[in-house]
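Quick entry between incubations.
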Amino acid sequence: EPEVTQTPSHQVTQMGQEVILRCVPISNHLYFYWYRQILGQKVEFLVSFYNNEISEKSEIFDDQFSVERPDGSNFTLKIRSTKLEDSAMYFCASSEQGNYGYTFGSGTRLTVV
Amino acid sequence: GESVGLHLPTLSVQEGDNSIINCAYSNSASDYFIWYKQESGKGPQFIIDIRSNMDKRQGQRVTVLLNKTVKHLSLQIAATQPGDSAVYFCAENSGGSNYKLTFGKGTLLTVNP
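Done. Structure below.
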């Protein structure tokens, strides 16, 4: 069964440092997303990406965040200057057409110290 | 405003019993709903979905019921097994073209052998 792959599974970084979280969506999917989940809380939408541009972003997705699809397979989330409150699980997701085949990766646990 | 919530944060059942997990939503414009299962340290795993033009959908051992009148969604799991123990989230799509999902807080289902 096709999977969304995320790397690394766990990232520890110092406050103020930049991190890049990587995702390989399912190959024939057209829509890409990042969500995050702070420990013990619900999953929150960050950003959606379609046709090589951001289609929607949440209030959480401020100027410190950016996304990129550098080639035909990867989809990255960059946090420029991490804060303690950025510590969370970050999930990448992709879908084939809109809601169809909406699949999540296993996540990257980001710990900011 | 948009919100998806769950009536019960925890549910404990005996193996073999049927489980019912409930979810309330407030956005009457939502046209698509998904139930996800999340095991510890993993990403949300698709269980079953339903569109707003339906009121019931069945899968293997799972049934989703949608009551648009009272904005209520439920997940029924038949013959619950220990492997069903996880956190269950409902998520809604409000009908926008960006396919953002809004998640509820989650219900922890514990199946006792």
